[in-house]
């Protein structure tokens, strides 16, 4: 699984609107959500993340996870590979690190 930005895009203040890309390859949504949770923990509010996911459950699981956490599901992204966009929220509800579909009690 790769985490990064598209080739040729700089990771600095010159390109703050570029999405962060999380390429999940053939991983199932359970694994993808664990990686996504780790990734968004280090991102600022308002950052767009594009998740490339071959799992057919992704269009169902991602909106549900966003509803649980408070992040914003932006929907599918046109392209050759199945890709979905989310926008990180300020002060999202936390989830268990190894079970991102379970809310963490504070």
From TrEMBL:
Residues 26-77 form the UPF0033 domain. Pfam families: TusA. InterPro entries: TusA-like, TusA-like_sf. This is UPF0033 domain-containing protein. It comes from Sinosporangium siamense.
